[in-house]
Amino acid sequence: MKQEKIDQLKSILNKLEDIKHSQESVIDKINHVITDLFQHPDKKLEKAMEDAHQKSSDNVESVNEVLEELEMRINKAENEN
């Protein structure tokens, strides 16, 4: 694989890592809201935050899977050069 292609894949990898960090930040903020809801219960809001937390967690898992696969592809391509 040409170095240009490897560099392009590394750029995508960096963007995926940024997406992962953003999703982790969203999860952290959702957790703060959930914690606040212990003091001021609101069943509707609690349900919405639980759903949002699950979706964000699923997104992190999906991005992690893609990151791992892409890292392996990059490592394999670098070892071939």
Description:
- There is one protein chain.
- The protein starts with a helix and ends with a helix.
- The model has no long low-confidence stretch (mean pLDDT 96).
- The chain is an all-alpha fold and 81 residues long.
- Helix 1 runs antiparallel to helix 2 (43-80).
- It has one domain (3-80).
- Helix content is 93%, strand content 0%.
- It has helices at residues 3-39, 43-80.
- Residues 53-80 form a coiled coil.
- Keywords: Coiled coil.
List keywords for this structure.
81 residues, mainly alpha, single chain, 2 helices, 93% helix, rod-shaped
What is the percentage of strand-forming residues?
Answer: under 5%
What about the largest sheet? Answer: none
Average pLDDT number = 96
Q: Supply the number of structural domains.
A: 1
Number of strands: 0
Global outline: rod-shaped
Rg over C-alpha atoms, rounded to the nearest angstrom: 18 Å
Alpha-beta content class: mainly alpha
The tally of helices reads 2
**Helix content bin:** over 70%
**Helix and strand succession?**
HH
Low-confidence stretches: none
End-to-end Cα distance: 7 Å
Keywords: Coiled coil
Coiled coil: 53-80
